[in-house]
Amino acid sequence: MAPNSLFAILLRSPWWISIGIAVLFFAVSHALLSPELRLFGAAGGLPFLGIGIVACWRQWRAPSPRRIEQVTLSLAAMSWPDFARVLEEGFRRQGFAVERVQGAADMRLQRRGQDTLVSARRWKAARHGEEALQSLQQQARSQDAVASAYVALGELTPQALRFAQEHRVQVLQAPELAQLLRGVSLPSP
């Protein structure tokens, strides 16, 4: 789905907006169309109803801003061995087999015969550049990994963000880490 399509925008918006559009389709169809055409007019709202349900489900499951802040502070205070253990546990809870590797990537995730390489060692850096993502992508390509992920609590440069989008490198920042580590015991900051 294109990031700026109507449905992509609605998925990022509050769920009730999509549901409201679906109700509007139904009301306008009922008010303006003849009885034999009302059902067809109202059916135009079904995609919006579906998007509203998906958005509601995603937003209900998303971590709160307070939880994101707590996770960020806790992760920023960790040493690399502790952070790696917590991250491994989060990935295992998602159904991945986790193996430590060397190079630009720190972990190899395996699920259903497909590999994902994860670079996480620089998670505390305040700013992340394109070079680290390029190295990760090169290692993923050389090892036939189907995906790659980069973990960063700090911000990515505009070039790094563009590179991640163009090469489909998943960037795991505070909100994604809070979601991944749901249910994982973290030390208090």
Automatic annotation (TrEMBL):
Annotated GO biological process: DNA restriction-modification system
Keyword Hydrolase in record: yes
InterPro entries (alphabetical): Restrct_endonuc-II-like, Restrct_endonuc_IV_Mrr
Transmembrane segments: 15-33, 39-57
All copies of domain Restriction endonuclease type IV Mrr, residue ranges: 76-181
Keyword Hydrolase annotated: yes
Single GO molecular function: endonuclease activity
Keywords associated with the record: Endonuclease, Hydrolase, Membrane, Nuclease, Transmembrane, Transmembrane helix
The protein, known as: Restriction endonuclease
